[in-house]
Sequence to fold (685 residues):
Amino acid sequence: MSSAAQEFLRSAALKSADLTHRQIIRRGIDQYSAANDKGRSRFADWEAARQRCHEIKWEALNNLDRYLLEFENRVKERGGHVFWAEDSAEACRYITELAVSRGVRKMVKSKSMVAEEIHLSPALEKAGIQAIETDLGEYIVQLRNEPPYHIVTPAMHLTRKDIADLFKEKLGDVDTDDPVELVAVARRALRRDFFSAEMGISGANFLVADAGMIALTTNEGNGRLCTSVPRIHVALAGIEKVIPRLQDLALFWPVLATAGTGQPITCYNTLIGGPRKPNEVDGPEEFHVVLLDNGRTELLADVEQRDVLHCIRCGACLNVCPVFRTVGGHTYGTTYPGPIGSVLTPHLRGIDEFHHLSYASSLCGACTDACPVKIDLHHHLLENRRNAVNHSARPWAERMGFKIWQWTMQSASRFRILGGLARMTLRITHSLGLDGTALDPMGPWSKNHAAPRVPEKSFRALWGKNNAGN
Amino acid sequence: MPETENPSREKILARIRTALREPAPHHEPVKAGPIFAPVTDLLDRFQKECGINITEFVAVPNLHVSASAIKEILAALPPGEIFVQDSPDLRELAAEWQDGRTIQWSSEGGPKESAQATISACEALVAQTGSVLVSAACGGRGASVVAPVHIVVATINQLLPDIDAALARVQERGTVAQNSFLCLITGSSRTADIEKILVMGAHGPRRLIVVLAMS
Fold:
C-alpha cells in the first residue's frame, strides 16, 4: 500500500468518527444543496445546459492546439505575454524569475487551484517573495498553514469561533466572532496588501480564444483588486481552460455559478486581456499568462478519459459525494479533493501512488449526475481501478485468490465443493471462538461490519429440498 | 519588451497534436429546448433581479433628474472625495450634485482608497440577471471595485434582455477589442466563506446602486 493510501485510511478513520466535523460539513453542504436546487430551477432546461456545456468543452478540447494558438495570438496582439509551462517547476521558475527581475517583494494572490497544484507560494517564499492569499477562505487557511479544504469554499471546515481565535492569534485586536466583523478585519488587513503589492496573481476560469482574454469569476472582488492595482498581473491556467468564443460565457457564467454556489450568477465576472491600454485610467503595466501542461496532455491522449479535462472546477461533485461528506477534503491529501480529484490525481501524480482514490467512492454516480459539463466521473473511477490492476503487478496472494475464484466459478461441482469447505471452515473457527482474532478468515470484513452467521445449509441445498417435488 | 522565451511551447503543442490523432467519442447532440426562458418584460425582470442580488435600483424620468438622485445618495455618505468617470454627461451632471464635494475625475488617474463613492456609466444592463456590464472605458478597472459605494448611471436603451445579448453588443461595437478589461457585475461584493453566512462588502463595494434614466 502506498504511503498516500495509508495516510488516507488513517485520516478517513479519524474524520468519519469526528461528529463535530461531520456536522459542520453537513450544515454547509445542506445550504449549498438548497441554493443549488433553486439555482437550477432558474434554467428552462438544466439538462440542455449541461449538454451544451459538454459540447462546447468537447469542441475546445478536441481542437485544443488551434484554440490555444488563437488565444495566444490575440493576447500578444493586446500586448500581453504567454508562457507555456511543461510542469510545475517550469511554471514556478517563470513566475519567480519574473518577480525577481521586476523587484517584486510582495504579491497578492486571488484564488487559484492551479497555483496550489504547482505549489507556487512555497516557491515564491524561497525566493524571498511574500505571497498573500486574498480570497477570504484562502486567507484563513493560509494563516492556518493548511491547504484548502474544498475547491470553492476553502475554509468550510471551520466555525466562526475557529476563525475568530485564528484572527486573534495572527492579527491581534480581534474581540468578536461575528462574521460581519471578522470579514471587516480581513478586509482592512488585506486592503493594505492590495495597495502595497507589486504583483497580482490570478487563476482563470476560462481562456477565451476569440477575444484573447481570460475570464475570472469572483464574489468578493479580491480577484478584481489583484488584477487592477499592482503593476504586474500574472494569470495562471491549465491548458484545458480554453473555450472557443466569448459568447460561450453567456452559458458558462450562469452554469458555473449555479453548480458552484447555487447563485444565479457570480458577483464579478471579469474579462482581462493585456495590460492597461495607453488611453485607459488604470491597470497593470504588464500582463502575463502562464499556460500549464503538467500531465494534462497525457490525459488528453487517453480518449476514454479525455472528458476529465472538461472540468470547470465548480466543486459540485464534492458537495454531493457521500465519501467527501464523511471523510472531508483534507483526507484526500491532494490538491483536488472529491470525485474529480480521485479521477484526476492518478493521472497528474502517478497511478501507483494514488490509485487508492479510485476506491474512495461508493460508485453511486451522484457526482456524474451533478457534473455541469457531464464528465462520466464514476465510470472513470472504475476505469482507473482497471488501469491500476493492469499497470502494476498485484500481490501474489491477490493474484492467487482470483485464480482460485475463477477456477471455482467455472464449474458447478467445484463451486459446490469449495462452498461447502468454506462454510465448514467458518463454522469451525466460530465454534472455537476465533471470531475477530488473527485466525478468523472473516477478520478484515468483521473489523468494521457485523459478520452474518453462517447458515446451516447452502442455497443450493435449500432449493433442492424445497423444490424436491417439482 | 522582448518576446517571451518559450522553450516548452513546441513540445506541448506537439504532444497535444499527437494526443488528438485519436478522436474522442462524440455523442450526437440531444435535441433540447431553449436553455433559458426568454426574457420578455425587461424592466420588470431587471428590477426583480436587482432585488434578488441586492442591487439598489433607482428609476428617474431622465438623465437630468438623475443628478438629484445622486445628490440624495451622496448626502447620506461620510464626507470625502467622490471618484467620477470623466465623460461629458457625467461632467454636466456633477455640477448639480457636487455641493462642495471634492471630485476626482478618472482622467486624473485611478480612484484612491479614500474615495467615498465612485460614479460611472456602463456598457449595458442585463435584465436576465440584474447585472451591469462595464469596461475599462467606464472610469477604469478600479472604478467599480475600490470605493465602498458604486453608483452606475444608465439609460433605458442600455437595458438588454440577457447576457448573450450584452456580450454580442460589446463585441459588435468593438468594445471587447478596444478595452483590456470588462466586467459583468451582479450586486455588490460579498462572501460566504465563514459558516456559509452571507456578508456584504468583502473586498469591493458594500453597495451597488443603479440610477436608470427612463428616457
Notes: The mean pLDDT of chain B is 95. The radius of gyration of chain B is 21 Å. Residues 40-213 of chain B form a domain with the Rossmann fold fold (CATH 3.40.50.10420).
